[in-house]
Structure formats: C-alpha cells, structure tokens
Write a structure and sequence with these properties.
By secondary structure, the protein is mostly helical. The chain has seven helices and no strands. The mean pLDDT is about 90.
C-alpha cells in the first residue's frame, strides 16, 4: 500500500463520514470533510506521479473514490433539499451512461483509451463547485443569495449534458472504427 492509494482509500472512508454530518445537519463539518476529501484527490495523483508509484490498484481506486464522493454528495444533498433533485438525476445519469458505454466497449473487446474531454473536466469542476457552495450556503451566514446557487446548478446541468453527449459521440466513433469494413457493407 503506497501513499497515493492510501489517500484514495481515505477518500472512500470519508464518504460515509460526510453523509453522517449531513444527516446530523452539521454542515460546517460536512463542508470540511468534503474539502479534505477533495484535497486527498488532488494529492493522490500528484504524489503518484512525483514518487513514481502509480499502480494498477490506484488506476481503479482513484476514479472509484471520485465517483463515490460525487454521486453520494449529489444524492444526499438532493435528498436534504440543498440542491435540486433533477440535477442529481442528470449527474448520475451521465455517469451511468459513460459506465455503460465502457462496459459495452469492454464486452465487445474493442480497444479504447479513456481521455478526459476538456468539457468533462469543466463539468467535474462545476459539479464540485455546486456541492461546495451548497454546503457553504448552509454552513455559514447566508451572505450570498440562494438564487446564485440555482444559477450554478443550471450551469452544471448544461455542462453535464454537453459532456455526456461528447462522450456518447466518442463512444460511437470508437465503435464505428472497430467494425471491420466488410461488416459495414
């Protein structure tokens, strides 16, 4: 077990802690837990590259930890009414569609390389910002309007949908390239 893999495991362990704080309406502690989890995400990849200790386990553990944190955050925050439920559905549906596409490519033995799209990275940043500001709104005095968070939710939804379409198009192109020419006729 190396340090980057430990940090990914720590992020997974922090997910139920985060949910418990939300259940107890301890939004300040939930916010701190979310920020610590985010810090482990930033550190694990950087340390893996810096220490040259990238592992197969880490290649699976890191994205699992990321998705677990984001999906759990969106579901829980929507249940407690901190973000709209429709946004949680959009975010989770996009991730499900991407995973389904990967499963199809794998089952069909199609070679593919997963490269994050720029819009995908922007989407992730917006999703994290949405969670952060929803928690911040509940954790501190309400110096900024909740309508600002709703605007952020709509922007996050738009980018989530666009990035989902980009990944669907990429998947279709990969599938089309993998079909032998004689099968296309």
């Amino acid at each position: 077990m190396n340090i980057p893999n430990f940090l990914s495991l720590l992020r997974i362990i922090l997910v139920p802690v985060f949910v418990i704080f939300l259940i107890q309406a301890q939004y300040d502690k939930a916010l701190i837990t979310f920020m610590v989890a985010g810090l482990t995400d930033a550190l694990d990849g950087a340390l893996a590259r810096l220490l040259k200790c990238q592992t197969t386990l880490g290649a699976y553990l890191d994205p699992i930890a990321d998705k677990l944190l984001l999906v759990t955050s969106f579901v829980t925050l929507s249940i407690f009414g901190l973000i709209p439920g429709w946004l949680a559905v959009i975010v989770i549906s996009r991730d499900f569609i991407i995973l389904l596409g990967i499963a199809i490519l794998t089952l069909m033995s199609v070679a593919y390389e997963i490269k994050p799209a720029i819009v995908g990275k922007m989407t992730t940043a917006l999703q994290i910002a949405t969670i952060f500001f929803a928690l911040l709104y509940k954790a501190v005095t309400h110096d900024f309007g909740y309508y600002w968070i709703i605007g952020l939710c709509w922007t996050t939804a738009l980018f989530t949908i666009i990035s989902g379409l980009v990944y669907i198009i990429r998947g279709i192109r990969i599938l089309n390239k993998s079909v032998p020419e004689e099968a296309k006729k």
